[in-house]
Amino acid sequence: MMKSVTKTVLATSACALAAVSTASAADLVLGVPNWPAANATANILKVVIEDNFGLEVELQNGTNPIIFEAMDAGSMHLHPEVWMPNQQNLHDRYVGENKSVVMNTNPVQAVQGMCVPTYVAEEYDIKSIEDLTNPEKMAIFDKDGNGKPEVWIGAPGWASTVIERIRARSYGYDEVMDLQEYDGSVAWGALGTAVAANDPWIGFCYDPHFIFVAYDLTILEEPAHDPATWTIIQPTDDPAWLEKSQASTAWKGATLHLHYAANVRENFPEVAAMFDAYKMPSEALSEMGYALSVQGVDAADFARDWVASNEEVVLGWLTN
Question: Could you confirm whether domain 110-247 is CATH 3.30.70.2740?
Answer without folding.
Answer: no
